[in-house]
Amino acid sequence: MWDTGTSEESLHPRTFVAAVVVLLVAVVLQVSVVARLGAPLGRPDLVLVLLAIIALIEGPMLGAVLGFAVGLVADLLSTHVIGQTALVLCLVGYLVGLVMNAAERSIVVPLAAVGAAAALGTLGHAATTSILGDAALTGGQAIVRAIAAGLYALLVTPFLFPLAAAASRRLHGDRRRV
Amino acid sequence: MGRDTRRSRLVIAALLVLAFTLITLDYRTGDSATGVRGVLHSAVGGVENAVTTVTRPVGRTVSSLTHPNRYHDRADRLGEENAALRRQIADGAEIDRLAGDLSDLRLLADKGQYTIVPARVIAVGDVTGMDWTVTINAGRRDGLAVDKVVVNASGLVGTVASVTDSTAVIKLLCDPTSRIGARLETTQLLGAVAGGQGPSSLTFTLYDASYQVKKGDRLVTFGSLDYVAGVPIGEVTKVVDVGGLSRTAEVRPFVSVGTLDMVGVVIGGPPADPGDRVLPPRPAPAPDAAQPPAGQPSAPAQPDGAQQPAGQPQAGQPQAGQPQGGQAQGGAGVPAAAGAG
Fold it and tell me: Do both B116 and B95 map to the same domain?
């Protein structure tokens, strides 16, 4: 588990705990603050955006595990079937993590990846909800909301991505010194 | 750096299997994790309540500080004082708004003689944004129970879906699984209002196929053991023909679910059906007009005008071919409403 230099393959406890805390805070902020803002068309999805950013920086493994854990908490806090948000977030975390190498080359890649993650994640939520229960939205509404979530994600990523990257460098740097 | 290695594939496969197992278990058994959900809800409900309490004033402070103040550096003291005063004004406006909301809510409760517990919304929906629910800061300790009706100053909001000690989750009336027994204003005709059409549209299905629902008709709850009667639901905006019979209609709810803040949970109803008196009065009844809704240009299914004398409470009864049996409870309600109004 504790490989030499190529550390990204394993889960670092400190990074993992920090990411879990950030995402749990995001879960509460999402329902208590963001959802009440009444943003036009849809709503920014803080959890999907942060999960995608963390997966871009830390890789598919952490992305998948983190998405699953946070999705499970979100499922337990909701009224729908347990496991559906975990499934969607797990897949989003994994798929976004796959492009982590490309993300270091250009700023366009993280933007596109996070935007796509927010849009596809929202569509995924809508799809699992309509398959496993009663559709909360019609198809058109779901698409509008997915596009809105993607656009909002594009707006906040330039601020959140550098922050997260700096935090990650700091956590990893500290670990190497210890 | 990390990419798609065999191990990460193994992990994702394991997690996906786990997710599908959970979905299957919960889907098949229904309430498999109510205990865990309850504990988590009470824990997070407290945090949500705190976050909402904190973020409301912070938002106001931020808005009061963004006013341009060019001499801030030269007159720090004055600037701070100014900001403090602005904050006070913003607080005052917020308190005024809350007091207004609360008195409107009381007015509705008094009209229907409902016993209500006022509460505020502390969270909207869930993380995915696919649940039509809100969380409020009142719970079992305040006398709430599952299936109680929730109202705000405009009318019906939804029903209580689950309660913890200090929070409760409200299933909004536009939730796809929501079904509420409804009665057409001034008549005793029953139907059901269902959600699933998004936040600003409900579907009303009339049980009696021989009656024509008309645009502008208003709906109140019918009432049962759990649901109190007479709570305004919404107004018919469009009649949908099903096989030539106008039984199904689109209804615009009186409550706008996007801007919910102060709500009241009805924990006790009046001894008698409040009839139609909780509905707001019609804006302009137009006494000699053929149809009750003011300014409605088209009335597609209107055999003759004499049957609809401007929507007075006694006007519902002489409708031809309208069965009167089987609605004894509501039948007692209309005279009561006429006497009280």
Answer: yes
Same domain, B121 and B206: no
Window 6-65 of B, Cβ < 8 Å to A: 7-8, 11-12, 15-16, 18-23, 25-27, 32-33, 36-37, 40-41, 44, 47-48, 51-52, 55
Asked if residue A3 has pLDDT above 70, the reply is no
Q: Which A residues in the span 51-80 are in contact with B, Cβ-Cβ below 8 Å?
A: 58-61, 64-65, 68, 71-80
B41 and B163 together in one domain: yes
Please enumerate in sequence order all residues whose Cβ is within 8 A of that of B71, keeping only pairs 6 or more positions apart, or say none. B78, B79
Domain boundary among B147, B171, B195: B171
Query: Is the residue at B269 inside a domain?
Result: no
**Boundaries of domain holding B194:** 174-254
Same domain, B161 and B250: no
Distance CA A26, CA B240 (A): 42
Question: How many C-beta neighbours within 10 Å does residue B286 have?
Answer: 16
Contact (CB<8Å) B128/A61: no
Q: Does residue B157 sit in the same domain as residue B187?
A: no
- CB of B314 closer than 8 Å to CB of B187: no
Residues of A within 8 A of B129 (CB-CB) are 35, 42-43, 45, 122, 125, 145
Q: C-alpha angle with apex B266: B263 to B269, nearest 5 degrees? A: 150
- Which of these three, B211, B231, B254, is where a domain ends? B254
**Which CATH number covers residue B250?**
2.40.10.350
Give the residue with greater pLDDT, A8 vs A34.
Answer: A34
- Shared domain check, B113 and B93: yes
* B96 vs B68: CA distance, rounded Å: 26
Give the Cα separation of B133 and B334 in Å (integer): 33
In a domain, B315, yes or no: no
Kindly indicate the confidence band of residue B310, based on its pLDDT and cuts at 50, 70 and 90: very low
Domains and CATH numbers, chain A: 12-168 (1.10.1760.20)
| Placement of tokens 């102060």 in the chain | B262
Distance CA B151, CA B255 (A): 9
Pairing mode, if any, of strands B232-242 and B262-268?
Answer: unpaired
Rounded distance between C-alpha atoms, residue B261 and residue B254, angstroms: 15
Model ipTM over 0.90: no
Does the structure show a pLDDT above 90 at A93? yes
Q: What string of H, E and C letters represents the secondary structure of B173-201?
A: CCCCCCEEEEEECCCCCEEEEECCCCCCC
Report which residue type is found at A38.
G
Domain tally, chain B: 2
Give domain status of residue B53, yes or no: yes
